[in-house]
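A quick aside before the break. I want you to see a complete sequence-to-structure record at least once, exactly as it would be stored in a machine-readable document. Don't worry about memorizing anything.
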Amino acid sequence: MIELGLNRISRLLQQTPLSWHAVHVAGTNGKGSISSYLSHLLSAGGVRCGRFTSPHLIDRWDCITINESAVQESLFRQVEEKVKSRDKKLGIGATEFELLTATAFEIFNQERVEVGVVEVGVGGRLDATNILNNVLVSVIAKIGIDHQSLLGDSIQSITREKAGILKHGVLCVVDGTNSPEVIQTLQSRIEDLGLDAVFVSPDVTVRKHPPLSDIFQKLDLEPHQKTNMCCAVTAFQFALSKLHPEIKLDTLIPRLRDVKWPGRLQTVSLRPLTSREEPILLDGAHNAQSAEVLGRYVDRKLRPSRSRVTWVVAASHGKNVTEVFHSIIKPGDNVATTSFGPVDGMPWVKATDPAELVSCVKSIPGIGEVRDFEADIVGAVNWACGMANGGPLVVAGSLYLVSDLLRILRDVQRGHALQP
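That is the input. The structure line, written in tokens, reads:
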């Protein structure tokens, strides 16, 4: 289970002074993308950069990168073992996420990074990553309703928890497209701390940095992607003004065309897992806000070619599945429900019973075929390919489902037999 608090991580890192500067990123949606854009810019500018995001995508160690490359498994396991040994010796009883956070920070020390881009796990105020003390810039991404049992039932209480990463004397960059309630709550906290803050608007950021306009057009970005990129550019600008004012931001912006953020609006081929030639869409949308974004994208990009969409869906236990799936699945769509397997290093994460998802989806008026595949992801995908018949096919509802499918594809491409 998730246990928030800074006492255990403080003891775990008590004898490990962090030798690098940090950019700390909190929010409900978009914080991973912002972190990815930001670390890409830093690496492109010649700054040795580490990035720590969660959850991992395929392997447990791919959540830690050095200069845009995932750390080697051998290094990860070596440092992780040292951290776990310290935890046991001191009798701390750190959580899995706290052990992972300490491992990432130790690796950043060992790899001598200059800047670590660190994504908050859950919330902010009591998240293990909030042990950071040498922060250059704090970033608040889009905030929505999620993790209510830990952060509170209102958008204001959730915002206050996420604003807990803000620190005296540290400039704050905020996604200015947040709801008025979020903006008001953040402004109150920013005023209390006497901080300088920038509320990012893509229109304003593009006027300051014209190369962004070319990126937006060439990549045909969605509105939230533009905002995330602008938040990263703004945070980069302020971080570099303190460390490397000689680096010219606008010369690096074109490099953002190369950034890929797997599992979010990602198109992939299913071959050789299936005979389907057409690519499919993967998206880890798992709450109302991210589902709304995915729904707009599907309606704009996929439905015009053929109004019916086929879905493969799963969800984490405890999620409001009606809020998520009723906003993206439309009358006439076909749906396969399934569940993801155990999540390495995150034993508290469980999948929603696919039968519950069937009940949720079947309550959509005019829904097409709905089939429950229990834990058989490959069976669900193959059925969906047949139902789609070359038309739009989307895998969504959980990043853990996306991770399992990407892992299956990797193993098949490597010639490994699927496990029964």
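Two observations worth writing down. The longest helix spans residues 223-243. The mean pLDDT is 94. We'll return to this after the break.
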